[in-house]
Amino acid sequence: QIQLAESGGGSVQPGGSLRLSCEVSRSTYGARCVGWFRQVPGKEREGVATLYTGDGSTYYADSAEGRFTVSHENGKNSVELQINSAEVADTAMYYCATQSRSRGLSSCRPASPHLFDYWGQGTQVTVSS
User: Fold this and answer.
1) What was the pLDDT predicted at 54?
2) What is the pLDDT of residue 31?
3) Contact yes or no for 109/51 (Cβ under 8 A)
4) 128 burial via Cβ count (<10 Å: 0-12, 13-18, 19+)
5) 38 with 93: CB under 8 angstroms?
6) Nearest residue to 71 (alpha-carbon basis) of 109, 36, 114
């Protein structure tokens, strides 16, 4: 059973920064695609960024380019999401997710949340003044 746990959410003022972390259960880690998604009540889940730990490839949604950075440190079982210059529109529940290894690398994209098989419980990010 693959387990993911997000942390680092909280409240931040517009223009501020926040760093989220996604811990993937050690026994099932290895090279895999890990993605960050967000959702607000009443709206569909939106992709933010994805990362393939095997070679560090990263992919961003257009809305995330420039202010969000997804990263992974070799040897660690976590993937981080740095949010800079936070905007009120960034307020959402943020989820991390991973895919079964049977999925190809081409599916490791933020536009494809339906191709992610395992999800964390989410961490709330609130941007307000």
Assistant:
1) 87
2) 84
3) no
4) exposed
5) yes
6) 36
Nearest in space to 91 (alpha carbons), one of 40, 33, 55? 40
Total count of residues recorded for the chain? 129
Mean pLDDT of successive 10-residue stretches along the chain, which has 129 residues: 94 98 80 95 96 93 94 90 97 96 87 94 97
Distance CA 103, CA 122 (A): 23
Three-class SS of residue 124?
strand
Q: What phi and psi values does residue 33 have, to the nearest 5 degrees?
A: -90, 130
The CA distance from 62 to 25, in Å, is 29
In this structure, the number of other CB atoms found within 10 A of the CB of residue 113 comes to: 18
**Token pair in block for residue 70:** 């997804």
8 Å CB contact between 72 and 51 = yes
